[in-house]
Amino acid sequence: MPLNTKDLLKQMTIPEKIGQMMQLSPWFFVADLEKEAAGPIRDLKLDEAKIFSAGTALGIGDAREMIEVQKKYLAKNRLGIPLLFGADVIHGYRTIFPVPLALSCSWDPENARIAARVAALEAATAGVHMTYAPMADLVRDPRWGRVVESFGEDPYLLGLFAAASVAGFQGDDLAGEGTVASCVKHFAGYGAPEGGREYAAVDLSRQALEGGYLEGYRKAIEAGARGVMTAFNTIEGVPCTINRYLLRTILRDRWKFSGVTITDYDSLHEVLAHGAAEDERDAARLGVLAGLDIEMASTDYVNHLEKLVTDGVVDLSLIDEAVLRILDLKEELGLFADPFHNADPVKEQLTMLSEAHLALSKRVALESAVLLKNDRMALPLHPALRIALIGPYATSHETNGPWSWHGNNAKNESIAEVLRRRGIDLTIVKDGDSIASYDASDIEKLRQADVVLLLLGENAHQSGEAHSRADITLPGKQAELVGFVKSLHGTAVAVLQNGRPLVLENILEADAILETWFLGTKGAEAVCDLLYGIADPSGKLTMSFPRSVGQIPVHYDGLPTGRPNHHELHPREYVTKYIDELNSPRFPFGFGLSYAAFSYGAPVLSASAITPSESLAVTVELHNETARAGVETVQLYLRDKAARISRPVLELKAFRKIRLSAFETQTVRFELGLSDLSYRLPDGSVVWDPGVFTVSVGPDSAHLKAADFVLKR
Ligand code: GLC
């Protein structure tokens, strides 16, 4: 019998209601409060009554700990309202999948659903009820460390991956087995900090918000996400955490979102640091007026809301509306019927790192790597070749990447171990990043090798939260290793492990470059399969790689400007350009090579003009020119050439992942309708304009074949 949450609300005192609006670390519920009376308990002005009225807990170690905390909590909560446990399950729980930026390069949202499904199956047995994922922030600045958690620079692709993640986490029944509620983040615009500097100011116009930055959150909510986490930044000068335009006008009134909103860590209290509230009491007032339901990690609500109500400053109905949403989510999760919902130490052991989960992680990893360069078919490698391994990651097990708390890099194999296990003639020469330490014997080993594998990139702490970089070349001196190998006339294959697009100008003399990001628990095995052609690289970049950091932001879907630069190699004087750099990125959005080679026919349109009620068919011949089968992601872009407002020079509208056998030709078909030709105005309304559109099809955003058509009035 479903619980009547409205009746329960009526039984609650004001302090009990306000307690539901606070999230604490599980530590508070099991700490010896007498012994721990100082420290965070005193700093946050907490006492036992407040602690055991908290509605949610942040993070959990395992099922045993969750059960212990929930039992202790329920014994002290007067009405027996269970704790909801939230955690950051971003790209896997124990079985770690490729980081989201890598996963998006598979151009298959089903991979996002699978990764989230496996993560939910594992996290649920550990007692997790809600995950703070997907991160649906649009990103266009690779200096920002959290691009690693994003699904890239395109709103349409990002939205598909965010929605698929929600479906994977939540499954078909939130109260069922192996599901967790999805809390999409960070609402809104957190991916556009000035200078790519973490936590820096964000200044986005309403057109930028409606034209792309809101898309990922919108799609996640349309997919049923039950939570929204507010971002650290401001929008139009108002911190997102107390921003009524975002939290009420857009989220509640326009998108009809019925789930809970939660702050980011301490972000309600940080409204004071933004200079947008007088004091904690004012922050609490502004938060509840904006419709913010749960305060994570700080205690402005629990220390000030009651007095704001008794002083007549805040109406109790605002608290009731927030608490009812929290109770409703707990009821949706089945927590009143079973406060230990899915937490099961035995099932936990059977579920974590199962062979099936590991196999799925590897399969997604194989599709997430991107082949950036492959001169003279340096790849794939033949198993008989003598391999020398050098570089800072030559023996590294660290393939999980940032936000993989519950994973364990030590359990991962290194690339060296996989190659050895497969009987490859392998010499590990050096794992440093400087040629200074190479002696004559090292050099001889390099000369003896048929191929030198250089394992380069960033460590897991050079991207992720609070890890922005102003210089996005390869750290240290590792780039010199490529030139050194080439000076010995060796074949240099660079394998990159990194959490952001990098400036790779100083390693372009490598014969081959394979971008492997952080591919998760089975990353090393996946990389070796790709290097030896056991699997073919098929990934395509979802974020542009700049030629220089000075180009940033560099993304494929910029506005045309009044002085477009149509011939960047021979530009006229007064057009948009640099005098010391090209406009185009080194590797464009959508780019990725295969061991096969594909050619495209020109797009053929079903009509030269359509009415708003008609659709347009676009077909293109795709041919595999080689004797090797391969996978190609055919991309379709649009340009709206004349509209009410200036529109991007290109917008991704559709894509098809096609497998072609040797020398095969396939006709790839797309269908465009009015929704593909429409766009959002700054007020969020969706409009379309008659006129000329250009449809372009190709392997990436820089190599396209185009045809025009007219949308009639
Ligand atoms: C962090 C992150 C957010 C995460 C939260 C809880 O600061 O910004 O993504 O979900 O705190 O760990």
Bound molecules: alpha-D-glucopyranose
Shape: globular
Number of strands: 27
CATH topology of the domain at 596-711: Immunoglobulin-like
- In which range does the helix fraction lie? 25-40%
Which key terms come to mind for this protein?
single chain, about 725 residues, alpha/beta, Immunoglobulin-like, six-stranded mixed β-sheet, 27 strands, about 20% strand, globular, binds alpha-D-glucopyranose
In short:
The protein has 713 residues and is α/β, with parallel strands linked by helices. The chain is 29% helix and 19% strand.
Describe what you observe in this structure.
The model has no long low-confidence stretch (mean pLDDT 96). Strand 26 (691-700) and strand 27 (703-711) form a beta hairpin. The radius of gyration is 27 Å and the shape is globular. The strands form 6 sheets. Strands 9-6-5-4-3-2-1-10 form an 8-stranded parallel β-sheet. A 6-stranded mixed β-sheet has the order 11-16-15-14-12-13, with helices on both faces. It is 29% helix and 19% strand. It has a domain at 596-711: Sandwich (Immunoglobulin-like). The chain is α/β, with parallel strands linked by helices. It is built from 22 helices and 27 strands. Helix 8 (109-125) runs parallel beside helix 9, helix 8 packs antiparallel against helix 16 and helix 9 (155-170) runs parallel beside helix 11 (215-222). The protein starts with a helix and ends with a strand. The structure holds alpha-D-glucopyranose. Residues 88, 132, 185, 264-265, 465 line the site of alpha-D-glucopyranose (GLC).
